[in-house]
Design goal:
CATH class: Alpha Beta
CATH topology: TIM Barrel
Order of helices and strands: HEHEHHEHEHEHHEHEEHH
Strand content: 5-15%
CATH superfamily: Phosphoenolpyruvate-binding domains
Bound molecules: 3-methyl-2-oxobutanoic acid
CATH architecture: Alpha-Beta Barrel
Number of strands: 8
Radius of gyration: 20 Å
Shape: globular
Length: 269
């Protein structure tokens, strides 16, 4: 089975074929979403909230990301695996970015990294690309800056903010990014950015005109309900199914109905 590559995403855009990206944080989920033939698995730093019970993505460490990325790359075989560079593992310097991305590729087995921000991270993007690391950008609502934004709010509204986002998008493309996540921005702005860029845009809360879409797996499966943004469509109620199944198991154990004879071993081989 041939793995999807970073350059292959540009071909999908050229052929007007939508890119499907979803998060995963462990081997089991990676295997399941890979079987659904997604193009990209994102080991997002959203794992801080979804897997580790944190309030934001800010406390996520590089060790967390390496551990979960290695788990994902052991499970998925086809999709391109992109791992997030967590907060303050790349913003401070080019060398920090190179070292952090190096661990995600060498120890985690990721094929690309994603980082947040525009103009301020261009030297990091250029250096990573020159070093042979495919880089996905991320603009709009960049959750690592949540304390600066003051909450999860739509970004890029108004002429100035929209122009700045467009400039950042073009600069990231120029610096060598192979794709760009656009999070929580007006659909019209996302459509304009998508038309202007040669690299693909992947939207989350950015409307239907992006070249692809990404969702957090646990949101779309109904397994994580702490935040419920309007852009999340729930494709299943797996959380409810888990609670119901485990309750049934509990009832049967307490009633002495489980395990039955078929779940045990006899004396004879
Ligand atoms: O961390 C993450 O899951 C992300 C997506 C929301 C794009 O960055």
């Amino acid at each position: 089975m041939r793995r999807v590559t970073a350059p292959a995403l540009a071909r999908l855009k050229k052929d007007k074929r939508k890119i499907v990206m979803v998060t995963a944080y462990d081997s089991t989920m990676a295997r399941l979403v890979d079987a659904a033939e997604v193009d990209v698995i994102l080991v997002g730093d959203s794992l801080g909230m979804v897997m580790l019970g944190m309030q934001t993505t800010v406390p996520v460490t590089l060790d967390h990301m390496v551990l979960h990325t290695a788990s994902v790359t052991r499970g998925g075989r086809r999709a391109l695996v992109v791992a997030d560079l967590p907060f303050m593992t790349y913003q401070q310097s080019v060398s920090a970015a190179l070292e952090s991305a190096g661990r995600l590729l060498k120890e985690g087995g990721a094929q690309a990294v994603k980082l947040e921000g525009g103009e301020t991270v261009l030297p990091q993007v250029q250096a990573l690309v020159q070093a042979g690391v495919p880089v996905m950008g991320h603009l709009g609502l960049t959750p690592q800056s949540i304390h600066a934004f003051g909450g999860y709010r739509v970004q890029g509204r108004g002429q100035n903010a929209a122009s700045k986002l467009m400039e950042d998008a073009l600069a990231l493309e120029q610096a060598g990014a192979f794709a760009l996540v656009l999070e929580c921005i007006p659909s019209n702005l996302a459509a304009r950015v998508t038309r202007k860029l040669a690299i693909p845009t992947i939207g989350i809360g950015a409307g239907p005109k992006c070249d692809g879409q990404v969702l957090v797996l646990h949101d779309m499966l109904g397994m994580f309900s702490e935040l419920q943004p309007v852009f999340v469509k729930r494709y299943a109620e797996v959380g409810q199914a888990i609670t119901e199944a485990v309750s049934r198991y509990g009832e049967e154990v307490r009633a002495g109905e489980f395990p039955g004879p078929e779940h045990g071993y006899g004396d004879k081989p």
